[in-house]
């Protein structure tokens, strides 16, 4: 770096650049927030879906699975699991997990959910599947 | 050591290394669960091991950052720390809270833990990396605020350098953006959108400021290059970081319900994110080549050079590999992401902490540098851990490419678990590379206990 470019110039560019790009990020974020209602299907939101999300969180599903591609990569994507298995298939799968796991296989815990809880989880997963994700994932396998 | 109060850094560094060991052990457990699915099931299911692995990572890095700041700030400010006592109290609070959280993860089912710790008051748990129970989250904020108060007061009463200013901005940013972990709406798109304000703006934003300032500090001390030159570089690097990284958040907004235009903003700006890391590498090598003195602590210089190179490879190159939206459409949420995550975190944040520890620890123990024997061992551990992480990354990348091909690109896409079984060989190789990493870590710890002729301070 030549002598003409001083430390105080570098500092000013740092402050100016940071403020400018942070404001630009805020502007884009505000625009996104204004567009989201059309995409996140919030009009269909129900207490049951919110309950499903809470169950999803308090059982740390994200610790093995991905949801819209985010999470752990140990178990399948669940954003579109209702497409793969159907509502009843998802419930049956969760209910049928053996308590001691499956010998030699990656195993999902038995959570002992009630029917009401299972319905809430499926409602949540169906809701996630309805979000406009720009056509992700590429196919039904997630 | 120049200032007595710098001594508070020592317990922080020791705790950081201890938690690092825990992180690696749980990493090995998870690696094994990838191939022997029922290993330790149901005692430690994968999700629990992963929570422990990632949360220990975050906590040990925070210990390292805080210890590093407590060591660096008095020297930069040319004054004693505002309150060493407060720093020690916070150390114990943070350690106990951290340990209690890990015990909580392991001892009771996560849903019970949520019930017990007041998740019903504010629902914040169960989101990746932010799994901490409410009391822990509040504790992190409290410790961070007291820490920031202590550090800021020290800077205010002493000399204000570019290094300490950049560090302060980084640390304040860390605290501020963590507050988004308390925002968890029922709307999953909004939840994900702001979740990244903590996660991305930490690791691809303000944490890089902490990294840059630590690196600049150690380079000034070990090379004797003029502060004006080094601080100018630091400003240029952090400018590049933030102008690419802030809008670069958009590369997480491709497929989570956010508008299409993020595919452009996110691809373009995150494609620029390797540049600051490249600049860091050039910076470190340049300063070391132009050194005006031979610092006896060769190991610290090696870590400084290493963190630049590995951060560039892991965060820069491996990030770029899958950051363009058309590529990311296929790679999103696969082992490619895992590969990138491992080398980026090790290269940028684990290594920079190991660098500041390597530089500071001998001084905290009353010498300029460790004995030759000790340094040789430390440098062995550098190469063992670094080469291991390179192999972990390569094996996960191979696994990821195959996964993408079998599960997403193929005309007859395979179900997730079928594809996983077909790539198990790479998970086995990753696990062995992980064992080599652990050996490197054991060598690293051994280096602290090797005596020999020390360099006087």
Describe this structure in words.
The complex is a heterodimer of chains A (142) and B (457). Chain A is mostly helical and 142 residues long. In chain A, 54% of the residues lie in helices and 3% in strands. Chain A has helices at 7-39, 47-58, 81-95, 115-130; strands at residues 66-67, 70-71. Chain A has a two-stranded antiparallel ribbon. The longest helix of chain A has 33 residues, at 7-39. The mean pLDDT of chain A is 96. Chain B is mainly alpha-helical. Chain B is 76% helix and 0% strand. Chain B has helices at residues 9-35, 46-77, 84-107, 110-116, 134-157, 162-178, 188-223, 227-248, 261-271, 274-289, 298-321, 325-331, 335-364, 372-409, 416-422, 424-447. In chain B, helix 1 (9-35) packs antiparallel against helix 16 (424-447), helix 2 crosses helix 13 and helix 11 packs antiparallel against helix 13 (335-364). The mean pLDDT of chain B is 97. Chains A and B meet through helix 1, helix 2, strand 1, strand 2 and helix 4 of A and helix 1, helix 2, helix 4, helix 7 and helix 8 of B.
Question: Oligomeric form of this entry?
Answer: heterodimer
The geometry of chain B reads as: globular
Give average pLDDT of chain B, whole number. Answer: 97
SSE class of chain B: mainly alpha
Number of strands of chain A: 2
Shape of chain A: elongated
Q: What's the total helix number of chain A?
A: 4
The topology string of helices and strands of chain B comes to HHHHHHHHHHHHHHHH
Could you list the spans of chain A in which at least 5 consecutive residues all have pLDDT below 50? Answer: none
In percent terms, what proportion of residues of chain A is strand?
under 5%
Helix content of chain B: over 70%
Mean pLDDT of chain A: 96
Sequence of strands across the biggest β-sheet of chain A: 1-2
Q: In terms of structural class, how would the helical and strand content of chain A be classed?
A: mainly alpha
Number of helical segments of chain B? Answer: 16
State the helicity of chain A in percent bands: 40-55%
Taking the sheet with the most strands of chain B, its summary is: none
**What value does the Rg of chain B take, in angstroms?**
22 Å
Q: Any idea what the radius of gyration of chain A is?
A: 22 Å
- Largest chain interface and its two residue counts? A-B, 76 and 79 residues
pLDDT < 50 runs, ≥5 residues of chain B:
none
